[in-house]
């Protein structure tokens, strides 16, 4: 069982990053092999909407995207962590997601079946925002649902935490750290996945 965690936060040891590390620890406790990736360590530019992927299903922009995509497709489980900026994922996360246009093109334009779709692959999302509004989680759900569909990976859980903003502040919320560990351990399991993503919202 390979579990890949992607931290998209621009901050080192930001709140979503710390929760991701706890979730990976939970997955490892369940016997999984885990890998942590900090997106800021890779060069991933935005989609340039050239539509070259409509002909071959591949992105023609030359950077670290292909390296990351291979890690994502090779993983049995994916944990995607993002801070919330302006009611959505951060810019670094959005670049990675938008580059998934090549996956969408391969699936829906070229009608190719992904080898990854034939395996039991599951994903969860961790998102932390400073706002007290629950609406900040709505676009996260929709964006990640669409992205996971392009990746042919099952969407199984969300851990959403609001009213947390200062770096490292999440360490003052033991319930969030506990839930991250539990969900990570659960994600690494092989039981039947839920019909709808499990939603854990903490404040």
What does this structure look like?
The protein is an alpha/beta fold. It has a single domain (2-202), classed as Rossmann fold (3-Layer(aba) Sandwich). The chain is built from seven helices and seven strands; from the N terminus they run βαβααββααβαβαβ. The chain has helices spanning 15-29, 53-56, 65-74, 91-98, 101-109, 138-151, 174-187, and strands at residues 2-7, 33-38, 77-85, 88-89, 122-128, 154-161, 198-202. Strands 1, 2, 3, 4, 5, 6 and 7 form a seven-stranded mixed sheet that branches. Helix 6 links the parallel strand 5 and strand 6. Helix 1 packs across helix 7. The model has no long low-confidence stretch (mean pLDDT 94).
List keywords for this structure.
single chain; about 200 residues; alpha/beta; Rossmann fold; seven-stranded mixed sheet; 7 strands; about 35% helix; globular
């Amino acid at each position: 069982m390979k579990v890949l965690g992607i931290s998209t936060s621009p901050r080192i040891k930001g709140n979503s990053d710390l929760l991701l590390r706890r979730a990976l620890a939970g997955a490892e406790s369940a016997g999984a092999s885990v890998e942590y990736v900090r997106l800021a360590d890779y060069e991933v530019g935005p989609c340039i909407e050239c539509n070259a992927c409509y002909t071959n299903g591949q992105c023609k922009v030359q950077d670290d995207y292909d390296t990351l995509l291979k890690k994502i497709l090779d993983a049995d489980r994916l944990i995607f962590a993002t801070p919330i900026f302006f009611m959505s994922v951060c810019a670094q996360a959005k670049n990675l997601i938008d580059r998934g246009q090549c996956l969408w093109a391969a699936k829906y334009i070229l009608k190719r079946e992904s080898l990854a779709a034939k395996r039991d692959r599951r994903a969860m999302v961790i998102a932390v925002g400073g706002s007290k509004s629950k609406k900040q989680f709505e676009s996260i759900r929709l964006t990640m649902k669409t992205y996971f569909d392009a990746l042919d990976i099952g969407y199984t859980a969300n851990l959403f935490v609001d009213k947390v903003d200062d770096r490292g502040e999440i360490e003052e919320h033991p319930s969030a750290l506990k839930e991250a560990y539990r969900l990570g351990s659960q994600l690494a399991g092989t039981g039947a996945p839920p019909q709808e993503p499990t939603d854990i919202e903490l404040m």
